[in-house]
């Protein structure tokens, strides 16, 4: 588990907003990204939906190499992810934030800390420092962690697995545990949600957390239902006893 250290990166430039979706494979990040993008567009915001790796043409080349190419050693893997992240942030994310867009990325630096830093045992602090250097300290305003038991995630899998998906159950368990540890260390940035819940419930909780951070518009007001408020409260959640 990493020490409870405060974030060291710089806040995202104004007036844009930066949101990252994190969690294991098949936790529902793509679905939540799409739903969030639809809602934000309805409110009149410019929305940029992207992913890591693969958010740019160069990133897609790197994605194919790291996920679908020949096996590489852990350090090369970490450096490929960092290369993609540096290019992604400087070519796509920062310009969009400077325009005032809301950028929603499927994975960001926390994935590298959990997968390469913890599960690959390369060192959480070293991998975090590498990503912060590559991005000039850019951290999201909100990081949504979709928490799902690895066995449940594996049951959702369709198609041939990529290099990361083929890793052992123990590997994916370490990833999950470290994501939860990261959330506990930075509760102000993280929103932890049970990814086994219905997609609409998860979406409502994300809206409730994000709405106060958006430019004020009448349509951006989210009804403060008890369930949404409770679900959106920052927490360093641990796996539920009934999971």
Automatic annotation (TrEMBL):
Gene3D superfamilies: P-loop containing nucleotide triphosphate hydrolases
Keywords carried by this UniProt record: ATP-binding, Kinase, Nucleotide biosynthesis, Nucleotide-binding, Transferase
InterPro entries for the chain: P-loop_NTPase (IPR027417), Thymidylate_kin-like_dom (IPR039430), Thymidylate_kin_CS (IPR018095), Thymidylate_kinase (IPR018094)
Sequence ranges assigned to domain Thymidylate kinase-like in this UniProt record: 21-206
GO molecular function (one): dTMP kinase activity
Reaction(s) the record says it catalyses: dTMP + ATP = dTDP + ADP
CDD domains from the UniProt entry: TMPK (cd01672)
GO cellular component labels: cytosol
GO biological process terms on file: dTDP biosynthetic process; dTTP biosynthetic process; dUDP biosynthetic process
EC identifiers of the protein: 2.7.4.9
Stated family: Belongs to the thymidylate kinase family.
Function: Phosphorylation of dTMP to form dTDP in both de novo and salvage pathways of dTTP synthesis.
HAMAP family the UniProt entry points to: Thymidylate_kinase
The name this protein goes by in its record: Thymidylate kinase
Organism from which the protein derives: Georgenia yuyongxinii
